[in-house]
Amino acid sequence: MKVAFTTSTGVEIDQNFRKSTSFTVWDIGPDEAYYVTTVRIDDDGGNEDDRIAARVTALKGCSIVCAGEINGPAAAKLVAKHIHPMKFSMGSSVEEVIGRLKNVLRGTPAPWMRKTQIADISDDEWDCVVCR
Q: Residue 22 in contact with residue 38, Cβ under 8 Å?
């Protein structure tokens, strides 16, 4: 499954979802994980709804977004697009979170996570959308 992290460094979760201009995307399975791409978003200074919508659109194809902070309206917009928001402490290691997700996938993942895995198997290709 594709997981996006709000990170400016690629190493740690260090950004708020609605202010993040960079998302590192990984494909994570029970036995392996690999880097897919970095999605960059030009923040045009529009209103908050536009900024959130741009980020949600850019993360099409992701199953989870791991963020340091995420507010209610942003979380609701992600969920409406079948992207599960997860909040982590600022400074959490991307590598550590990937390891934790792999462990969950090796065991008995939550029903929503199992659905995501099944949906990923049928995807032919993931389209990365970069907002400009």
A: yes
